[in-house]
Structure formats: C-alpha cells, structure tokens
Recover the amino acids of this structure.
C-alpha cells in the first residue's frame, strides 16, 4: 500500500478523502480519516469493502487497475457481481474494476434470475453515452508493461475464435474460457502503458471481447450478468470513441429486452442505437440497428413503424459493400437480415411473409452459424403454424431440434418451448406426439452428455 501511495503521490489525508468520495459514489458513507490510513500502513486490519474502495481510489490516481491484493490485503474478496456495475462508470479505473470483478462471477454455478438493471439505469447510461466524448485513452502513461499492436492482434484473433464457438455451440459452451482469457490476458493490458494509437485499438479489441462475454451470458439466460457486461462494454466503447460499437451494445440491450418481453425498454434502446450510430457507423451496421428497431416495433404491433424501419434496413444493406466493416460485423449478411425480418413478420402476425423470409434465412445461413440456423428454423416453424400448416411446422421444428441439440443455449430452448405451447392444442395429433417425444429424447441426451 505504501508503494502504491508513493507512486500516486497520495498523503494519508489525501487518500482518506478519496476513499470517502469513492464510497459516496457507491452510495456508502464512510468516516475514514488519515488516522485509519496510518493504522493500515502499520499492519492493522481493514474492512473488506473499505479495502475495495481504497483500491478504486488509488486506481483513479495512478490510472491503472489496482486491486486490494496489490495493496497487501489478500483477504479482501472482490465485490460481488450482483452489487457492481449498476450504472455507467464514471472513470476508466472504475470500469476496469467492475470488469475484473465480473470475471470472477461464474454463471454456471449461480442463480440465473437475479434482478436486471432498472429502466432508469438503462436510460441514464444510454443518455450518458449518447452525449459523451472520447477522452480516457492516455498516451505513454508510465507503466511496467508496454502494449503493442501484436497484443491487440492476439486479442482480435481470440475474439474471432470465441465468437465462432459461440455461434456454433451456444453461449454456455465456452463462457468459462472467455472469462479466464479476458481476466488474465485482456484486463491487465488496459491498465498498462501504450501509445494513443495502440490504446484506441486496444480498447476497441477489448470491447469486442467484453461484448462476447455479455452475449454468452445472455444466451445462457443470465440476464443480470449480461446487463453488467453490456453496461461496462458501453463504457469501454466511449474510451476509444467507437460509436459503432457503442450503438451495437445498445441494440444488443434492445434485443435482450425484446426477448424478455420488455417492449418499451426494447424500443427506447433500439432508437438510441439508431441515433447514436448515425455518425461513425458503416451502412452494414446501420442496417443492423434499423432491423433491431423494426423488431421492437413489431413487438408492439406498430405495423407502419416496423415497415419503415425494415425499409431503412434494406436501404442501408444495399450499400453494405461500400465501406470496410470491422471483423465483428461479418455475421451481418443477407441471411441475418432475412432472419431479423422473419421475426418481425411473425410478431406482426403476417404468416405468409414470415414464412417467405424465414425460408430465405434458412437457405442462406451458413452451417457455421448453427445457433442462428436453429433460431431461423424455429421461427419458420412458428410461421408455418401461424399460416395453418401444422404438419410442415412440426417437421421444420423437428429438424431444428435434431440439428440444434448441441447448442447450450437457453434462448434456443425457449424457442422450442414456445413452439410446444403453440401446438399444445393439437397434442393428440400423431405428428405432435412424435415431435414432443423427440424433444424429450434430445433433452435426455443432452443431460447424459
């Protein structure tokens, strides 16, 4: 602790004041004085939460992440993920602390029904991002380690690998590996030394990886954890001034809200994404943002608004080849656009149109996007059912289940459950009985594996 205080140029009184300010920022009130700081320096005990506040205060001062362990407090546990990340971080050190703590949160070993962030937290974060300016990337800050473009290239390569795992096997398959890599190989670099050019590239690459952690948590059904990762990623996108990534995070938050039936939140976040992505986004990205707005509008049965947003998405997509896109946007192809539209028409109750777009999405989706293909097949089945073709719907759903049984995706399982509820009125029909039996067999096989 004494060493870090010397590096920060912090006196006992100065550190005590900063600790009180950090505590207040977290809604806590401490009476820490210079006397307490001296006691800690003399080797006396410290409260676990106070140690976390001291680490955050010194992180702000030295502009790199400091943990309680770095200060000589090995028994100070990380802040629980359920108690952190509830808003848009005020500083770079704060968001790095949040991300470091989140990576210790294991969704596979915890409850998936923790409360999500409130609408007010979401809207406040969206507004703060919309009016923000870049400015936290520091140039040539003193540090024991220097980051170069080779480090950035390694993160991007890893992100591409993890993204493919996610698409092919679902979020649950590799979240633990995502987490470990991000904690051990990415977060430490964000607090190291780098030039302005490297720093901008580094934070963009880190945002890609953090977004993957958020999406995989969402796919597993851990929505509170996904919220916290997405909120932190939104803040990272501000550091590098990456408006396209920030708009992507808002559109992902809209997607999640739509999935959870929070239509008003979904529409507000989708519109924030469209507005925030007007500057600095490629036509392909803007097609994605408009398509997600159409999804939200379709959920609230705004036929005219959904049609307008889909038309905008099509116009942007027609210009997709006119700009160079980041690697993370490669999945936004014609198949993906058709997949977005088939969801819209399904939710608008327009069966024939939903079938047409869903068939096209299934036809165009590459096998490597196994989860997307499974979703499109399930939407096709729902659309066929909406159009009154029970047998075709059950055949399509059966194919999705058989070929999607490797997906560790809570979302995919819910699509299947929703379809089963949709055909429950025909439970005695032979094809429905066979389908339900097939679903049971696949679930049992997954349990065995």
């Amino acid at each position: 602790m004494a060493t870090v205080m010397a590096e920060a140029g912090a006196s006992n009184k100065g550190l005590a004041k900063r600790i009180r300010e950090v505590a207040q920022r977290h809604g806590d009130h401490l009476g820490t004085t210079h006397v307490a700081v001296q006691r800690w320096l003399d080797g006396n005990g410290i409260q676990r939460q106070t140690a976390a506040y001291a680490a955050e205060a010194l992180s702000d001062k030295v502009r790199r992440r400091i943990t309680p362990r770095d200060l000589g407090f090995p028994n100070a546990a990380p802040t629980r993920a359920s108690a952190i990340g509830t808003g848009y971080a005020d500083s770079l050190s704060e968001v790095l602390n949040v991300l470091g703590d989140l990576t210790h949160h294991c969704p596979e070993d915890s409850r998936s029904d923790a409360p999500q962030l409130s609408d007010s937290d979401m809207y406040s974060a969206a507004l703060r991002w919309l009016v923000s300016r870049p400015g936290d990337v520091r140039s040539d800050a003193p540090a024991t380690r220097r980051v170069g473009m080779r480090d950035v290239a390694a993160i991007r390569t890893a992100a591409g690998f993890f993204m493919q795992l996610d698409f092919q096997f679902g979020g649950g398959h590799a979240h633990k590996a995502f987490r470990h890599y991000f904690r051990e190989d990415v977060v430490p670099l964000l607090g190291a030394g780098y030039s302005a050019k490297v720093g901008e590239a580094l934070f963009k690459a880190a945002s890609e990886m953090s977004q993957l952690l958020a999406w995989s948590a969402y796919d597993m059904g851990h929505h509170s954890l996904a919220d916290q990762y997405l909120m932190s990623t939104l803040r990272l996108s501000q550091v590098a001034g990456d408006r396209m990534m920030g708009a992507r995070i808002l559109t992902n938050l809209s997607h999640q809200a739509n999935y959870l039936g929070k239509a008003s939140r979904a529409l507000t976040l989708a519109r924030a994404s469209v507005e925030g992505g007007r500057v600095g986004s490629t036509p392909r990205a803007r097609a994605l943002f408009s398509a997600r707005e159409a999804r939200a509008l379709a959920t609230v049965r705004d036929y005219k608004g959904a049609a307008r947003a889909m038309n905008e998405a099509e116009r942007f997509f027609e210009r997709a080849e006119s700009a160079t896109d980041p690697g993370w946007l490669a999945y936004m192809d014609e198949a993906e656009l058709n997949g977005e539209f088939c969801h819209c028409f399904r939710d608008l109750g327009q069966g024939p149109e939903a079938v047409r777009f869903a068939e096209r999405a299934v036809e165009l989706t590459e096998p490597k996007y196994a989860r997307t293909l499974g979703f499109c097949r399930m939407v096709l089945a729902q659309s066929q059912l909406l159009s009154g073709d029970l047998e075709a719907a059950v055949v399509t759903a059966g194919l999705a289940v058989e070929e999607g049984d490797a997906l560790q995706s809570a979302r995919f399982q819910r699509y299947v459950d929703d379809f089963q509820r949709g055909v429950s009125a025909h439970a005695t029909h032979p094809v429905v009985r066979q389908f339900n039996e097939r679903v049971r067999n696949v679930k049992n096989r997954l349990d065995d594996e």
In short: The first helix runs from residue 2 to 8. The CA atoms of residues 81 and 220 lie 16 Å apart.
